[in-house]
Amino acid sequence: MRRGLSTQILGISGKLLVGLILAFVVLPAFVVTLAAFNDRAILSFPPTKYSTRWFTRALTYRDFQTGLWNSLVVTAWASTIALAVGTGFAIALKRYRFRFKAGLEGVLLSPLIVPHFTIGLGLLVLATGIGAARGFPVVVLTHVIVVLPFVIRSVYISLQNIDERLELAAASLGARPGRVLGTITLPLLAPGLVSGWLFAAILSFNEFTASLFVTGQVTQTLPVAMYGYVREFADPTLAAVSVIYIAVTATLLIVANTFLGLGKVLNVEQGR
Amino acid sequence: MLSKAVDLPPPASLPGAAASPRGNPAVRLDGVVKRFGAVTALEETWLQVEQGEFLTLLGPSGCGKTTLLNLMAGFLEADAGEIFIGGDLVTATPPYEREIGIVFQNYALFPHMSVAKNVGYGLRMRGVPKREIAERVDAALALVKLTGFADRSPRQLSGGQQQRVALARALVIRPRVLLLDEPFSALDKNLRGAMQVELKEIQRRLGVTTVFVTHDQGEALSMSDRIVVMSAGRVRQLGTPDQIYRHPQDRFVAGFIGDVNLLPGRLEACAGERATVAIRDLRREVAAGALSTCAAGAAVDVFVRPDHLGIRPAGEAGTLPAQVAALVYQGTHIDLHADLDEGGRVVVRVPGQGALATYAPGTPVGLLVPQGGLVAFPPEA
Amino acid sequence: MKPAIRRRPFLPLFVTPAVLVAAAIVAAMVAILRYSLHAYVPGSLDVGGFTLENFSDLTRPIVLRALRDTVLICFETALITLFVGYPVAYALVRTRSILLKSIILIIAVTPLFLGEVVRTYAWTVVLGNTGFVNASLRQIGLIDRPIQLMFTELGVIVALVHVTLPVMVIMLAAALAHIDRDYERAAQSLGAGPVRAFLTVTLPLSMPGVVAGFTTAFAWTFSAFATPQVIGGGKIGVVSTLVYQLGLSSFNFPVAATLSLAGLVLALGTMWLVRRAARPLEALGGH
């Protein structure tokens, strides 16, 4: 059957193409992992001798240590604040009508389009103006602004999957608005809140461009410290840090996918 | 309005309708209006639901019946008018203080709670002691024949079982009014009939005032004490199922309730309560009703039910000439579709299967029009 | 008076924090606007008097070239990402195996959650003169001198495609997921081969996703800083690197602000044009 054959060829070449693209996606991670275990100080392929000394150096390098600590602090604050702010706003956005709703939504989602260097520079000059430049509050605020759209989106999608009639039913059974929120809305929203927080945390932990503008020597986050390193040194220490980064992020994503269904959160599940 | 159920005392351990003070109507709507922007979803409506009554709001989608239900429940706020439940003014009372039970089309069972937690939810919100909650939940589950399902998750239940849980959840709080929003439409046809009988039985036993929303006229006719037929945000007719079925007040009701044929006629005369119409050369008496404003000789539409029409050999005196178009086998009867010679198609319900052999498509026949059971309205503007 | 039914319980509680964050965003933008309208005082973070001088700096050749190159690079990157991302999104949505779906999803999406620095660094290891590509090619004897990939526009675009691919895949997959598979089956039952069915039914219906993915990829590329800075190595001047130089190396806030404002306008303007141009295409999707 000619059609059968051509369909098969099409199918196979399609799979091959997707496979190649996915290989392109994982190539850097693969290469950087090889480099991290390469004993030689100069990036070269293929590695001749393997060692873990770059991991040791990475974990003992002071800028990375303080950067990691700063990143953890900023991430914890920023993702939690963003979750609280984003959840409230997503609920209001989904359930209520109020004045300036569209405008507020537009401003809060604008970091998805406004270049991060613009946001970073704006907050830097703003903070400089009030004498708060390079302090932790400004760094946290910057991260909240940058990750908030993702939290709002994540919670909003979860809200869409909650039948509003559940809340009406609870109200008809005598639950006041606070009890409806506490006994119906929030429990049903929990997976969305966890995934929203998780994504906010991952994004905040990795935020670089805006951080570069608003952090200083004391407050610099890990990505900023790494950027500083890559400009000064060419040894594979950064490869070791990258491997740790990739491993942690991939693990978190696999966890998120297993327990929360990444596809649902990202809205890419086939409808029927 | 009489209510048969209210004299029956509710069984001791079961939730009964909260006794109403001094015979007030269970629900009263005084000139209630609801608009959504420029659209009037519900025009000024006056309505009383008596204690223990089973009242049905019937109409096509978008007729305003669900809006009316949501206004009673407090999910929507009226733009004008007042709403009373059991004699109390509740126009501005939020749903959680209205003491109403509601069963939604999709049941809206809380997916993160067990059956028992779902049923007990309203009692927990009222701060009822734990032990009493357990007792009342058990009684309510027994009422809907779900004893033993307490610890299941709603997801593990069939559609019919989910509906029973929703019903138990709504009844256990001893609501002043039970609101049912198309509760049967998600069930398959066989189960639907059984659940209708069961719901009606429970309602009668408890004597709980019930407002039932549906677009299914069969459901409405079989379950209701009274029916409110609605269309385009207006109440078209309010009456018992029999009144609605046999004496429709307007074209819309006549066309919406039951299967119906339309025969073209002329108004011959109108005298007091009665009017005479002519269909070709057949003269029939109908209630004057809406025809009283028509001039003699004006065209009118005569409505007649398929089972009231008869089939005779072509040319028989006192029949309308027509031609068989199609025969549709329906089990206990045959639906015979025929084209009238003056235009228009009618359906005749012929009992048994004999018609299949007798009338092939294309056969000329005579249509027998009954003396009574006809209603007539002016043609549509 | 009877109390009104509270239709919007907790509205202030829900919205006030969001209003504060929005206020910070607006204040930052206003600060940029304010700086762009004031004179630069060398050696000081304070600004001088009101001036429109900063905007004339935008016409300097280096700035004009950066603006032009930025738009070109963003456009090329978004277009390539679209063609690379579509097959992946299609496979992601249509594959029946849950395991395969998860694998594709994880692989396609992980880079989204890896910072720009890690990804950029990884690409320097791939593209460098002693890096993976050159070493491999030399190993199999295809070349004897390294191909220059670092510090070239090609290198920058390859890395940028990698950066924007996840978001493109997500947006395309979201659009594809909401197209009923029966449309394609109906087309095939009517005699269209798989390719024809795809081109005449699925592709037009996915157009809204294509446009959304393209504009988002464009915006993300515009926003990229580490990639053009490190892989471009100063040879590829784009708006983000120029703003950084002006703002953080020379502390010339006013001109940096003016340039980032110009960049923002350029980005929004281009995206608006793309959306406008794509409107007939989107109409194909019938949404």
Q: Gist?
A:
The complex is a heterotrimer of chains A (272), B (381) and C (287). With 272 residues, chain A is mostly helical.
Order of helices and strands of chain A: HHHHHHHHHHHH
Which regions of chain B have little confidence, pLDDT < 50, spanning 5+ residues? 1-21
- The number of helices of chain B is 9
Assign a percent range to the helix content of chain B. 10-25%
Element-level helix/strand string of chain B? EEEHEEEHHHEHEHEEHHEEEEEEEEHEE
Structural account:
The complex is a heterotrimer of chains A (272), B (381) and C (287). With 272 residues, chain A is mainly α. In chain A, 77% of the residues lie in helices and 0% in strands. The mean pLDDT of chain A is 87. With 381 residues, chain B is of the alpha+beta class. Chain B contains nine helices and 20 strands. A six-stranded mixed β-sheet of chain B has the order 6-7-8-3-9-10, sandwiched between helices. Chain B starts with 26 loop residues before the first strand and ends with a strand. Residues 1-21 of chain B have low confidence and may be disordered. Chain C is an all-alpha fold. Chain C has helices spanning 11-36, 53-57, 61-94, 98-109, 116-127, 132-139, 153-177, 181-189, 194-205, 207-223, 226-232, 239-249, 253-284; strands at residues 38-40, 47-50. Chain C has a two-stranded antiparallel sheet. In chain C, β1 (38-40) and β2 form a beta hairpin. Chain C starts with 10 loop residues before the first helix and ends with a helix. The chains are: A mainly alpha (272), B alpha+beta (381), C mainly alpha (287). At the A-C interface, α1, α3, α4, α5 and α6 of A face α1, α3, α4, α5 and α6 of C.
Q: How does the SSE layout of this entry go?
A:
The complex is a heterotrimer of chains A (272), B (381) and C (287).
Chain A: H1 2-36, H2 53-60, H3 62-95, H4 101-109, H5 116-129, H6 136-160, H7 164-172, H8 177-206, H9 209-214, H10 222-232, H11 237-260, H12 262-265
Helix pairs in contact in A: 1-11, 2-11, 3-6, 3-8, 3-10, 6-8, 7-8, 8-11
Chain B: E1 27-36, E2 39-49, E3 54-58, H1 65-73, E4 80-85, E5 88-89, E6 100-103, H2 115-125, H3 130-143, H4 159-171, E7 177-181, H5 189-206, E8 210-214, H6 217-223, E9 226-231, E10 234-239, H7 241-246, H8 251-256, E11 261-271, E12 274-279, E13 282-287, E14 299-304, E15 310-313, E16 319-329, E17 333-340, E18 345-351, H9 354-358, E19 364-368, E20 375-377
Parallel strand pairs in B: 3-8, 3-9, 6-7, 7-8
Antiparallel strand pairs in B: 1-2, 1-4, 4-5, 9-10, 11-12, 11-14, 12-13, 14-20, 15-19, 16-17, 16-19, 17-18
Chain C: H1 11-36, E1 38-40, E2 47-50, H2 53-57, H3 61-94, H4 98-109, H5 116-127, H6 132-139, H7 153-177, H8 181-189, H9 194-205, H10 207-223, H11 226-232, H12 239-249, H13 253-284
Antiparallel strand pairs in C: 1-2
Helix pairs in contact in C: 1-13, 3-4, 3-7, 3-10, 5-7, 5-11, 7-10, 7-11, 8-9, 10-13, 12-13
